[in-house]
Amino acid sequence: MSKPAIHKACYVFGLVFLSAVALAEPAFDLGKQEFAANCAICHGTNGTGDGAFGDLLVVTIPDLTTLSARNGGKFPVDRIYGVIDGRAEMRAHGMRQMPIWGNYYTLMPLHETDDYPYHAEAYVRSRIVALIDYLNRIQGK
Predict the structure, then answer these.
(1) What gap in Å lies between CA 33 and CA 127, rounded to an integer?
(2) What are phi and psi of 55, to 5 degrees?
(3) pTM of the full predicted structure?
(4) Structure confidence by residue, pLDDT tens digits, 4-25
(5) 64 Cα distance to chain centroid
(6) Alpha-carbon gap, residue 63 to 74, rounded angstroms
(7) What is the rounded distance in angstroms from the CA atom of residue 64 to the CA atom of residue 141?
């Protein structure tokens, strides 16, 4: 095969490969899915606190895109984890408007698996960490 033929073949292969990549289904984003399913109703689809349900509440819904800015430029992972999980907070210290997602995730039904044992706490933590990762990615937007 001559050099021009090899170059053409590589060019065609490259175009086919890039087209396949461009048309491929986007990667699954658990954190974004969690946010859309559980948080967007109050915090809005973009996290700025303008969700549909927020108008019905008597509390101000925080803008989740400014968490880092309100914390001296550092994303407050531990605090956000505690707020989302909610199981460790002292209920005697007042009402809690935000749902306790740690309890919710623990009660969610799971698909049966036979290749590894299910661990409820690992499941809860993985969903919360995925959500925190997504919140970190939307900072400053």
Answers:
(1) 10
(2) -65, -25
(3) 0.66
(4) 766 566 565 565 665 555 565 5
(5) 12
(6) 16
(7) 10
